[in-house]
């Protein structure tokens, strides 16, 4: 590949060889001194790797077709998710204790259809334009939600006013350096309160190939992979933000997908292309949440009792250990 290397078949620098390996087993791109040549040979090497991988894949597929039903089962690739460390708080769907706790917790009135969600969305003091636009777009996703700007009012004064006006949930969007970076979700009137770190915020105009503006139809809600007791509590908090009966004619879906304790939010509209094919359009906004704490009762930063706090040095000892 470098100076003094053997001629490459077909490049006119020597007689063509019938069987010649393009790169020897001990080939190292880093040994090439010329930067342009090094980059060129790296691309050639990657191309050869892809061809070999594709050829091996075709060979295995032909072998499986030849064996038919006698073919061995496909090997399941190892991932962090399927190698997850077992969590003793993982919920069994038939667990009577879990069913009793959920029937008597703070969200029971919502799931028993005794309350209708009414959401107040507010911000930190003096929000910037990006945070304001994010709150306005979030209000179009969550039905029956109202945006209120703080103007220096403390949360301890806002919460009693929310309860007096029959609000069921309070969402606070915090920002740092003009970028939304935190979300506080408090269920009213008795809590709990969850504090999330927010990242990867994308407004509608920043999403490529987005669909048209969302309609006022009540969306469907999808909650994925909230498997532990803590995860169930967080999932029920998100579910309680949306009315019970979605309007399927709107074809809009709000998704909270938990993967490795990161909660990815997406808002889509689905389109029926045929009887068997369905397409989706992302409407936005999108963002990612990471749970930092879960507190009993409403927001109280000084005297609040915490059910769960994320402690990085104690809890993040293994990449295969998840809490939600």
UniProtKB/TrEMBL annotation:
Q: Where is the Brix domain?
A: 117-300
The organism sits in which domain of life? Eukaryota
| Recorded GO CC terms | nucleolus; preribosome, large subunit precursor
> Could you tell me which residues belong to the region Disordered?
1-22
What span is annotated as the signal peptide, if there is one? none
Name any Gene Ontology BP term: maturation of LSU-rRNA
GO: which molecular function terms? rRNA primary transcript binding
- Functional note: May be required for ribosome biogenesis.
Q: Which PANTHER family match?
A: RIBOSOME PRODUCTION FACTOR 1, U3 SMALL NUCLEOLAR RIBONUCLEOPROTEIN PROTEIN IMP4
Q: What is this protein called?
A: Ribosome production factor 1
């Amino acid at each position: 590949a470098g100076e003094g290397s053997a001629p490459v078949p077909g490049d006119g620098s020597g007689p063509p060889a019938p069987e010649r390996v393009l790169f020897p087993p001990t080939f190292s791109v880093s040994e090439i001194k010329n930067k342009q040549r090094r980059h060129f040979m790296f691309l050639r090497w990657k191309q050869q790797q892809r061809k070999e991988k594709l050829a091996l894949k075709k060979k295995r597929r032909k072998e499986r077709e030849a064996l038919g039903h006698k073919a061995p089962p496909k090997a399941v690739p190892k991932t962090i998710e399927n190698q997850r460390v077992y969590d003793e708080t993982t919920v069994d769907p038939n667990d009577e204790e879990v069913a009793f706790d959920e029937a008597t917790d703070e969200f029971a009135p919502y799931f028993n259809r005794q309350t209708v969600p009414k959401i107040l969305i507010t911000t930190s003091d003096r929000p910037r334009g990006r945070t304001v636009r994010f709150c306005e777009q979030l209000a179009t996703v969550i039905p029956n939600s109202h945006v209120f700007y703080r103007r220096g009012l403390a949360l301890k004064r806002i919460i009693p006013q929310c309860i007096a006006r029959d609000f069921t949930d309070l969402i606070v969007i915090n920002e740092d350096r003009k970028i939304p970076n935190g979300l506080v979700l408090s269920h009213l009137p008795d809590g709990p309160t969850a504090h999330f770190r927010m990242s990867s915020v994308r407004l509608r105009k920043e999403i490529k190939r987005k669909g048209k503006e969302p309609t006022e139809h009540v969306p469907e809600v999808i909650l994925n992979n909230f498997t532990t007791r803590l995860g169930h509590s967080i999932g029920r908090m998100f579910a309680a933000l949306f009315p019970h009966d979605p309007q399927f004619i709107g074809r809009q879906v709000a998704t909270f997908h938990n993967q490795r304790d990161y909660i990815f939010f997406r808002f889509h509209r689905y389109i029926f292309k045929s009887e068997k094919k369905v397409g989706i359009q992302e409407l936005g906004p999108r963002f990612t949440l990471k749970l930092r704490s879960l507190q009993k009762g409403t927001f109280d930063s000084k005297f609040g009792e915490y059910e769960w706090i994320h402690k990085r040095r104690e809890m993040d000892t293994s990449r295969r250990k998840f809490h939600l």
